[in-house]
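Issue 218. Parser rejects a valid record. Input:
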Amino acid sequence: MIAIIDYEMGNLRSVQKAFESFGTEAVITSDATVLQQADKVVLPGVGAFEDAIKELRNRDLVSPIHDLVASGKPFLGICIGLQLLFDVSYEGGEYEGLGIIAGEVQRFEIAPEFKVPHMGWNQVNIEQASPILQGIDNNTYFYFVHSYYVVPSDPSVISLTSDYDGTFCAGICRGNLFATQFHPEKSQRAGLKLLQNFAEI
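Output the parser choked on:
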């Protein structure tokens, strides 16, 4: 069973339906006990970093998330769920993140002809092999919606990059921890393949 962390941020049902489309049980929950019992955990998210980290703290989910990652259980962050893993975000101020991955979240500073947020389909480059990328070709298109991107202190955690007036980190991998800036649940066949790979780890 896969547990999807519910903190009222993002399209939780879309992520759940994506897993269910290939027969994987997925529950939406903010119950730490249910999260501990799950085989795998997903931290999704859409919206502002400040609101997201506030909701996680209000629901007493910060320590359980740290424990889940430390336990070795497969863990997948999506969009804001990637950004929350980092030390600090500069979205609308300066906000402390979960501190699981060293680094920061920065706003795109790009040429005027490039719109922010970065929204739509973009190719990703595979920088290192990862179990969730099995059967996915280099330069596959995924769907992005974001104005900020992560900058890991340790480049070795970067599994995917993309380009939007410059290269940025589109995904990370460290042991049992995986996360993507794009939305696999909105990325059609390739996105479903990535989620199925995660479900089968």
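Fixed in the parser; the record now loads. The chain has a mean pLDDT of 95.
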